[in-house]
Amino acid sequence: MQGEVVQFQCSEFKSHQATQSDIKIAMNLRSSNKILAQAAIILFLFWVIALILLTRPLLNNQQSEFSNDVLQRLSKAVSELEILKVRNQELQWILTNFSHEAQSGKINENVVERLRSTLEDKIRVPISFGVLEKKLVGSPSKEYEMKRRAIFRGVQEIWYFVQQELEKLKKKGHDQSAPELASLIQEILNSGKEHEIVLLNDLQELSSMEGHDAWRTTESRALSDLVQRRLHYLQNPVDCSKARKLVCNLNKSCGYGCQIHHAAYCFIMAYATKRTLILNSKKWRYHRGGWEKVFLPLSDTCTDPSGLDRSNWPGTNETQVIELPIVDMLSPRPPFLPLAIPRDLSERMIRLHGDPQVWWIGQFMKYLLRYQPETQKMLDQAKEKMNFKTPVVGVHVRRTDKVGTEAAFHSIDEYMLFVADFFNKLEMKEKVAARRVYLASDDPSVLPEAKKKYPDYEFLGDVSIAKGAAVATRYTDSSLRGILVDIHMLAHSDYLVCTFSSQVCRLAYEIMQTLHPDASSKFKSLDDIYYYGGQGPHQQTAIYSHKAHRTGEISMEAGDVLGIAGNHWDGYSKGINERTKQSGLYPSFKAVDKYNIVDFPVYNEVAVAA
């Protein structure tokens, strides 16, 4: 059934100290100190004026004796000085705390409020800090970010439902020879689609207007940098001869996307067991020279698989070298297989990203798929030759060996519906010079067909890549270059339309997550929801109760755990209620992902901030 997951088993960098985030923090600190300096000057001027006013009689009085009035003024001046001393201590406290907060990239609201109240109390004028107040709203709560994304998905889900129901009515109108009814319903569909597009645009614009984009960018870079430095630490032990190792054979009997996912599975296992990954890629099917001919080595210090003792998985904690099987043969299965995320980073991941499970996998892809200079040059030249530039939608049409076994056939028209949606949405905000599409396929006939059917679109792609992706020529140098180009261009597109039953599609989507703070909504899958071959259970939690009222539906109560099998993209998902054991359909908007948060090593050896 369309939308159901096909559970097949394919399955430091220290940055320059003058990074943009460091510069921003320095600017914030400079701005903050300037405000504090101005406040101190204001208080100092009041103190000087008070002294002048209080001591002026002394300067004008030519008598040598002090009058009682002058003594009273001096007494009052001393009292004022005591008050100013207290205010000075207030400012000293604020300056110390505020500077510390600014250096750490955070500004404590209590500190700012105390500064405000201190100044307002003294000068009797309302104080507004402008930049500081913007800074205070620059770091949204996890709950806020989750709710914002939930609203965006909710708008999509309600349109999936309404569209599907109206399409059913339109079909009935045609079947019952009621063309006027069918025409009216089509008008409603067209108008409803425009409403959805405007709502989604407004939500995205609101997200930018609220002032949190800078935080999202900074947090994305910081969190990714932390994970990348942990991986670098893991892969570069001081003494390779004593390091604990996990050996993984790259040559799994499957296609390129499947093999890369196999390597990432091995890397996740290495991270979770705190063992250096040794990737055995000799006579790799895609390049006889091995992994390092295409990508950078996984380690600069440790590529030797030997050790004092070795064992097959799981071995013991003391075993120096452990051989890892493919995920299909893994036993016992540990809790940290995808879609698990690490507990120590989970709060930050869930706050930052709409699908933290994919973000986590993307980080391993980011480290694994670091190109050799020759590979990078080849990709850059391909990009320049085809004039690849944004805005562009990446479309991947998988045919050949997938169709009829692991996926259904989808015409080019089905893909182009969502390509059109993307550009219609974009054109409501800005002028689009060209509707550009990067089209990748393992079927050479798809690109010519698309160009003929859709002359208003500019199609980028290469038929020779499609020919090289055929099963008979899949494991050749030219085929490897083609699949590298396809995945690179798809991942760098602004939006991705594909079938998640394809490993290539999912791989492009995973890489895409490393190029944006949150690209979880930049896709449309014509069949499955995202999954990882060999993954653990994918569960959701019901947030609203539901009583079944249609054939095939299941009932649920808020808090029920649901094992999700797929989203039918019609307002309903399919799964099993683990409390009642009923299997069937339930409204997609009434459930959210239940993240599998697991204890991974915390890598205290790697500092949280670079």
Automatic annotation (TrEMBL):
The catalysed reaction is: N(4)-{beta-D-GlcNAc-(1->2)-alpha-D-Man-(1->3)-[beta-D-GlcNAc-(1->2)-alpha-D-Man-(1->6)]-beta-D-Man-(1->4)-beta-D-GlcNAc-(1->4)-beta-D-GlcNAc}-L-asparaginyl-[protein] + GDP-beta-L-fucose = an N(4)-{beta-D-GlcNAc-(1->2)-alpha-D-Man-(1->3)-[beta-D-GlcNAc-(1->2)-alpha-D-Man-(1->6)]-beta-D-Man-(1->4)-beta-D-GlcNAc-(1->4)-[alpha-L-Fuc-(1->6)]-beta-D-GlcNAc}-L-asparaginyl-[protein] + GDP + H(+)
Q: What PROSITE patterns does UniProt report for this protein, alphabetically?
A: GT23, SH3
| Boundaries of every GT23 domain copy | 242-526
Look up the record and name the pathway of this protein.
Protein modification; protein glycosylation
Query: Which SUPFAM superfamilies does the protein's record reference?
Result: SH3-domain
InterPro entries from the xrefs? Answer: Fut8 (IPR015827), Fut8_N_cat (IPR045573), Fut8_SH3 (IPR035653), GT23_dom (IPR027350), SH3-like_dom_sf (IPR036028), SH3_domain (IPR001452)
Q: Which cysteines are joined by disulfide bonds?
A: 240-302, 248-266, 254-258, 498-505
The protein's superkingdom reads: Eukaryota
Q: Which GO terms describe its molecular function?
A: glycoprotein 6-alpha-L-fucosyltransferase activity
Q: Where is this motif: SH3-binding?
A: 332-338
The UniProt keyword set, sorted, is:
Disulfide bond, Glycosyltransferase, Golgi apparatus, Membrane, SH3 domain, Signal-anchor, Transferase, Transmembrane, Transmembrane helix
- Region entry Important for donor substrate binding, spans: 398-399
The record's GO CC annotations read: Golgi cisterna membrane
Annotated EC: 2.4.1.68
Q: Where does it reside?
A: Golgi apparatus, Golgi stack membrane
Which family, according to the similarity comment? Belongs to the glycosyltransferase 23 family.
What is the stated purpose of this protein? Catalyzes the addition of fucose in alpha 1-6 linkage to the first GlcNAc residue, next to the peptide chains in N-glycans.
What protein name applies here? Alpha-(1,6)-fucosyltransferase
The record lists the lineage as: Eukaryota, Metazoa, Ecdysozoa, Arthropoda, Crustacea
